[in-house]
Q: What sequence folds into this?
């Protein structure tokens, strides 16, 4: 347990966990429903403009779309675990990926660069403590990190985007935590893009589909990142540019050539099918596009085969 961290009222059975792969068969995953994130709470919903949502969330539609996501996860045999509720959560908490990073050695609790999300890492720690998942470490000030900026290139190499959500101090702390485990941390510069208020993560620009294939938004990637991926043998599938704003590059690998995507990006989805992937869809107009968080953002994988 982390010193001073409160416990929840319910202790879950100890569960197996691992990390270091983004493409192995998904076996266990943590999610945070719109209900848990307060999308039906008038006080939380009132913050939608400040949090960068496109419009005030439609709770019933969001719940329906999140249920469709869950159904797809369960259809492949994944165990779906719900994050416990907490008063500290905000609308962004539905995007459960960002607040923690699973490793083979335990969870690393993030300190998000978006101020309203800073409590989320600690809450993921409460969940981990009750679930019997080890805590490898916790990012502290002045470091900021969000797991949406982190891509496992292989089991010993973690690529971390350096931008407005993850800063140099946060990357330095990640390196210090993982170096003793013989994991190399490489920093990847992110573009200015839409500016500091926008949600631009490294995983907005790269989604690993299998051990050799990456879906990319190529014009927005730094040259050194492109060269790094190519030097490691990755082949690229490019998104359709017209679907950039609808999160076409945000794709969750389910393992074994299966992908989970939002149905709105039909052109990019067809490209993926043409490359031999089994593409599974769910509607994301409200739960994904409105809050700028796709299938990877909505899920915190805990165990892959």
A:
């Amino acid at each position: 347990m982390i010193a001073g961290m409160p416990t929840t009222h319910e202790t879950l059975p100890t569960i197996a966990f691992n990390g270091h792969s983004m493409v192995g068969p998904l076996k266990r995953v943590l999610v945070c429903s719109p209900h848990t994130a307060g999308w039906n709470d008038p006080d939380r919903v009132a913050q939608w403009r400040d949090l960068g949502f496109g419009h005030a969330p439609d709770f019933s539609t969001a719940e329906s779309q999140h249920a469709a996501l869950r159904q797809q996860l369960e259809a492949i045999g994944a165990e779906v675990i719900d994050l416990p509720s907490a008063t500290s959560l905000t609308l962004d908490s539905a995007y459960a990926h960002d607040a923690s990073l699973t490793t083979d050695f335990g969870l690393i609790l993030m300190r998000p660069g978006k101020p309203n999300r800073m409590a989320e890492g600690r809450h993921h720690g409460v969940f981990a403590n009750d679930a019997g998942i080890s805590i490898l470490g916790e990012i502290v000030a002045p470091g900021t990190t969000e797991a949406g900026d982190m891509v496992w290139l292989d089991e010993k190499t973690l690529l971390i985007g350096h931008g407005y959500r993850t800063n140099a101090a946060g990357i330095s702390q990640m390196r210090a935590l993982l170096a003793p485990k013989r994991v190399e941390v490489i920093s990847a510069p992110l573009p200015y893009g839409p500016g500091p208020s926008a949600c631009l993560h490294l995983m907005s620009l790269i989604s690993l589909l299998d051990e050799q294939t990456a879906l990319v938004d190529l014009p927005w990637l730094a040259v050194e990142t492109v060269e790094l991926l190519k030097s490691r043998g990755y082949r690229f599938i490019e998104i359709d540019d017209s679907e950039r704003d609808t999160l076409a590059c945000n794709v969750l690998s389910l393992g074994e050539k299966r992908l989970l995507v939002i149905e709105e990006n039909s052109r990019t989805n067809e490209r993926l099918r043409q490359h031999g992937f089994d593409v599974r869809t769910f509607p994301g107009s409200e739960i994904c596009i409105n809050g700028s968080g796709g299938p990877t953002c909505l899920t915190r994988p805990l165990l892959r085969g």
Notes: The helical segments are 42-45, 59-75, 118-131, 168-178, 223-231, 266-274, 285-289. Residues 193 and 224 are 17 Å apart (CA to CA). The two ends are 27 Å apart (CA to CA). Confidence is low (pLDDT under 50) at residues 1-9.
